[in-house]
Amino acid sequence: MHALMNNGGFPLSDSQSNLNLEEVAYRSIIRMILENRFRPGDTLLETELAVLLGLSRTPVSHALGRLVSGGFLQKRKKRGCIIPVPTGEDADQVFFARQVVESQAASTAARNASPDEIKHLWDILDEQEKAIAQSNKELYSKTEEAFHLGIVQAGKNTLLERFVRESFWHSNIYIFFFDSLYRGWGDSSITHHAPTEHRAILQAIATHDADGAARLMQDHIENVHAHLFKGWE
To answer: For residue 204, what pLDDT is reported?
Structure first.
């Protein structure tokens, strides 16, 4: 079974994890999708996932139900669940949702983040730059998630955190499957521009510039979206 991850995107030990089994199954299935173990058009079967995750069918069934209701999967009668093939219209909606919720998350973090939380975010960005230098796409994806979810956690609004996490995961399905960053580390404008944009966002948070943090985050997500569609042309 692949490693479970905490909200920052790094592995959880058994002693650290207090998630119930349904939540374990839910996060694990999403993680496998984002790690490219399943692709659009693939069918996910409850029985196979239960074996793969080392869980009973009940929590896996409930997790699949949540993923269907959240739009990650589509239910197929008596044939499991299918990962839908992304479309441009879907991506427009997902990235617009990210702009709305993450701009507010950045603004809230600028007002509420502690010095320790800000330092942790700087450390994440240092790790991200190492990942780019080493062409380590797995580490890059983990630091990307850790940074964006770390910002909303620093804002200390649990409901907003839920919205950010789900919209982030949704958008990453598009990024992982269609962006050149994850097909190869050639000329990806995301890797070229994301670290600079991330540092500008964090600088605004660190200086308690709530409006600036919100604007920079909105621009950053819009840039990622624009790059994604350029890759589809």
So the answer is: 98
Q: Which residues does residue 11 pair with via DSSP β-bridges, in sequence order? A: 5
Q: Report yes or no on 14 lying in a domain.
A: no
- State the first-to-last Cα distance of the chain, in angstroms, to the nearest integer: 37
Of 41, 2, 40, the C-alpha closest to 24 is: 2
pLDDT of residue 36: 73
Helices 158-178 and 210-232, axial angle in degrees (round to 10) = 30
Q: Are residues 75 and 173 in the same domain?
A: no
Structurally, the chain folds into a number of domains equal to 2
Q: What backbone torsions phi and psi does residue 115 show, to the nearest 5 degrees? A: -55, -40
| pLDDT averaged per 10 residues in sequence order, the chain, 233 residues | 39 44 89 79 92 92 89 82 81 91 97 97 95 83 91 95 88 67 49 84 98 97 81 48
Return the closest-CA partner of residue 127 out of 106, 113, 110, 141: 141
Range of the domain at 52: 21-82
pLDDT for 89: 81
Which residues partner with 134 through β-bridges? none
Judge if 216 and 167 occupy the same domain: yes
pLDDT for residue 186:
45
Examine residue 2 and state whether it is found in any structural domain, yes or no: no
Lookup: tokens for 87: 């479309």
Q: CB within 8 A of 207, min separation 6: which ones?
A: 110
Question: Which of 64, 82, 100 delimits the end of a domain?
Answer: 82
Is the whole model's pTM more than 0.85, yes or no? no
List the structure tokens of 26.
Answer: 């839910």
Do the domain assignments include residue 4? no
**Structure tokens given for 229:** 């569609």
Do the domain assignments include residue 10? no
